[in-house]
């Protein structure tokens, strides 16, 4: 029996959780005047963050959503008419390894 492979999004979630834990640990060590251990945790955060792709900025997200809305020729009152399948397909195109 082969082990089940994790999806890219699951792997990213694990890495993000590890980053959060190390950031929290660094704060605890700082409060306890253990700067040596805090620095070690921060270095691990830097290492882990190298494996996390940068997030889209708010302006980029707005621009992409505006493209989808324009393609569907929607007006302000048509928010419910937004094709969620199209939005998902665009997200999949932007993030091909997220499945």
Q: Would you list the SSEs in sequence order as H and E?
A: HHHH
Number of structural units classed as domains:
2
Q: Average pLDDT, to the nearest integer?
A: 82
- Count of alpha and pi helical runs: 4
Rg, alpha carbons: 20 Å
Strand tally is: 0
Percentage of residues in strands: under 5%
Head-to-tail CA distance between termini: 22 Å
Overall helicity: 55-70%
Structural class: mainly alpha
Low-confidence stretches: none
Largest sheet: none
Protein name: Altered inheritance of mitochondria protein 41
GO cellular component, one term: mitochondrion
Organism: Hermanssonia centrifuga
GO molecular function: carbon-nitrogen ligase activity, with glutamine as amido-N-donor
Describe what is shown at a glance.
This protein is mainly α and 99 residues long. The protein contains 4 helices and no strands.
Defining traits:
2 domains; Asn/Gln_tRNA_amidoTrase-B-like; mainly alpha; 4 helices; 99 residues
How would you characterize this protein structure?
With 99 residues, the protein is an all-alpha fold. The chain folds into 2 domains: 8-49; 58-94, no CATH class. It has 4 helices and no strands. It has helices at 8-31, 35-49, 58-71, 84-94. The longest helix is centred in the first third of the chain and has 24 residues, at 8-31. It is elongated and about 60 Å long. It starts with 7 loop residues before the first helix and ends in a 5-residue tail after the last helix. One of its GO terms (cellular component) is mitochondrion.
């Amino acid at each position: 029996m082969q082990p089940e492979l994790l999806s890219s999004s699951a792997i990213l979630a694990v890495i993000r959780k590890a980053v959060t834990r190390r950031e929290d640990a660094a704060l605890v060590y700082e409060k306890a005047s253990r700067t040596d251990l805090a620095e070690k945790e921060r270095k691990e955060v830097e290492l882990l963050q190298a494996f996390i792709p940068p997030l889209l900025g708010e302006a980029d997200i707005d621009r992409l959503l505006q493209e989808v809305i324009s393609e569907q020729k929607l007006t302000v009152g048509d928010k419910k008419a937004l094709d969620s399948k199209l939005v998902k397909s665009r997200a999949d195109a932007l993030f091909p390894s997220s499945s």
